[in-house]
Amino acid sequence: MQISNYKVTAGPEGFIAPSAADMGVILPNKGQALVEGSITSENEGMDKAIEKLISAKNPVFFPGPLVLWNWKDGVEEKAKAVIELSKTIGAKIIPMPDYRPKYPMINPEVEINPNHPNLTIWHNKIDVCVFVGVHCHYANVALKIIRGGTDCYTISLCADAGHEDSMVSIRDINTEKINTLTEIARQMKARGK
């Protein structure tokens, strides 16, 4: 049951943007997704994510350690599926290999700093980004910073329950679902969307 009409949209929403959870946005159940703070079917969420990515001027995937490092069975296949999806979309990839602050500065062309993701987004003029393979606690912080200080549309492909502060959040993401997203992208591109 949704308890709020708060819409999670691209910002900038201010230096201290309210967390979507504080505004009443709740995480979806299995088989559901979040689109701008509203619970939808997973299929609707996938369609919206691909629609946004295909129409973007500069879409970028931000893969995190859970898909960058081959730490357990199935990760390599998932990483390859992410690469195929990004190629199908025509998106760049900027990795988030770890979460330590990169002080005194980072090279925002090479990697994203989860403590200051807005710098990478501003520098690269990213209008739509995808978080995939990022630990939830870091994704939540980075997504809130992005929403608070940029106009970047955020999509999270989460292996767990999803992210309230993402404009589109698809939960329980696995290799099969990433391959489904790739197929949706191919179909939309073929139809000229």
- Described by its quaternary structure, the protein is single chain
What's the overall average pLDDT, rounded?
89
CATH topology: Rossmann fold
> What general outline do the C-alpha atoms trace?
globular
How many independent structural domains? 1
- Low-confidence segments: none
Describe this structure in words.
- With 193 residues, this protein is of the alpha/beta class.
- The protein has a seven-stranded mixed sheet, sandwiched between helices.
- Helix 1 packs across helix 6 and helix 3 packs parallel to helix 6.
- The N and C termini lie far apart (33 Å).
- The relative contact order is 0.21.
- The mean pLDDT is 89.
Descriptive tags:
alpha/beta, 193 residues, Rossmann fold, seven-stranded mixed sheet, 6 helices
Task: Give the helix/strand layout.
Blueprint: E1 32-35, E2 38-41, H1 42-55, E3 59-63, H2 65-68, H3 75-89, E4 92-93, H4 117-124, E5 128-132, H5 136-149, E6 153-157, E7 168-170, H6 175-190
